[in-house]
Amino acid sequence: MTHRPILTHTRDQLAEALARLPGTKALVMTMGALHAGHLQLVREAHALADHVIVTIFVNPTQFAPGEDFDAYPRTLGADMDALETVGADLVWAPSPQDVYPAPATVSIDPGPVARVLEGKTRPTHFAGVALVCTKVVNLVRPDVALYGQKDAQQLAVLRTVFSQLDIPVRIHAVPIVRDRDGVALSSRNQYLSEEERVRARALSRALRRGVEVAEAGAEPGSVISACRAVIEAEDGIDLDYIALVDAGTFEILAGTDGVPLGEAEAAPTLLTDGSRAGRVLIAAKVGSTRLIDNMEVALRGPVRLEGDEARAGGGTEETGARA
Questions:
Q1: The CATH fold of domain 6-174
Q2: CA 42, 45, 50, 53 torsion-angle sign
Q3: 38 included as an active-site residue
């Protein structure tokens, strides 16, 4: 049976409401404009804890000047209606002044994982994400926090930050939810025109093509080339990056950055059949709307990072763009 969640705004209201929720707690952090992907996070949260706390906050520290902070959709009434259908217990919808009572003069540098791909395109973004997520986890003190796999690099950043700062919360990743046409659900999809929505389907098609060629034993550079070919065949898409990373370590195996991430000796993430677990990521503008997407791939062929062949006296592996 579903119920209307308790709505709080201030820190004191949040603390009082949390004190009335005995048992374990799951946290779902959102920026509002909720869709079915967000609601799936809440559903999964119910299976992991006694109570589900949802935050709705458009965080200013993760937006750079010129990004869509002011235009980002804010739909609290509709969000509360949606959360009522899935039984969230408590919502915290603070103002920036509630989250940042004093100007944010402290920052968190998540390290190398935050400086490539999405972090290269948006260099201040992940520091802002790390800061707000650390603050909210410290305020809510959940047993588990759920994050969508659609923001795969964000997930890798938060795993790194929470682990290295010894923040006592378990992270649970939730698979991407897609619409019938294959487009990953996103609050920004509402910006797309009807024609742009059709073009946006190329992102998931490109990722599926990458999965196919990887399953057939292609090397990382060839996986990226196959993905890029699908995007380039579609007019009206401005590709930012396509990249193939290790699904666990986020080490870059092929892509526009063309360099490994972190320690070269990092142990690869293996699947039960012995193949390497990878993830292809893509970012592109469709019209004026920037979209990201990704899919996990099983790498069955040899994995050589850019420069390996040159060091061995051979040629250079073909690489593509990154996501």
A1: Rossmann fold (3.40.50)
A2: negative
A3: yes
